[in-house]
Write a structure and sequence with these properties.
The protein is 36% helix and 23% strand. The protein contains 5 helices and 6 strands, in the order βαβαβαβαββα.
Length: 162
């Protein structure tokens, strides 16, 4: 059975609504043979990542950056998850992407910095972006929940055994 890991920081109703829709999408009836493991960013571990066949990341945009909780996740798992550092100690370019990942970000007015911060770290991991980033501004309505459901379903279908 394939395993899809969902790592999120969902401190508000709006981010929780997106997270719930993503998780519901991963469990769509059309997808079979995929175990979905949901972890808060503060509880997810390198062992969770190592056991995953795909990963979904969710975060609010906080002060132009990903949440501190998601940053903590990356700080905790980066090297054990195969992250590479450049000579200056910054995240290097891995170029070995195999683990498909997806990302959703909620912001009140902007998500640009949060998306950029996640992608700058992920590019140094052996992961590959498997779906467009879902960026949601302001209130979360039916269209945004549908897009989140679609993101979850897409990643689950990608890791589904054939």
């Amino acid at each position: 059975m394939a395993r899809l890991l969902v790592v999120h920081h969902s401190p508000t109703d709006t981010v929780r609504a997106l997270t719930e829709a993503v998780v519901a999408g991963t469990r769509d009836d059309a997808v079979t043979g995929v175990e979905v493991v949901v972890r808060s960013a503060l509880d997810a571990s390198a062992a969770d990542v190592a056991a995953a066949d795909g990963i979904l990341l969710g975060t609010p945009a906080n002060f132009g950056y990903m949440s501190g909780a998601l940053k903590h996740f990356f700080d905790t798992v980066f090297l054990e998850a195969g992250g590479e550092l450049g000579e200056d100690g910054s995240a290097g370019a891995s170029g070995r992407g195999k683990l498909p990942y997806g990302l959703w970000v909620h912001g009140r007015y902007d998500t640009t910095g949060a998306v950029r911060s996640v992608q700058s770290i992920v590019q140094a991991l052996p992961w590959t972006q498997a779906a467009p980033v879902l960026e949601v501004l302001g209130d979360v309505g039916a269209d945004q929940r549908d897009a989140a459901y679609e993101l979850g379903g897409t990643l689950a279908a990608l890791v589904e055994p054939v």
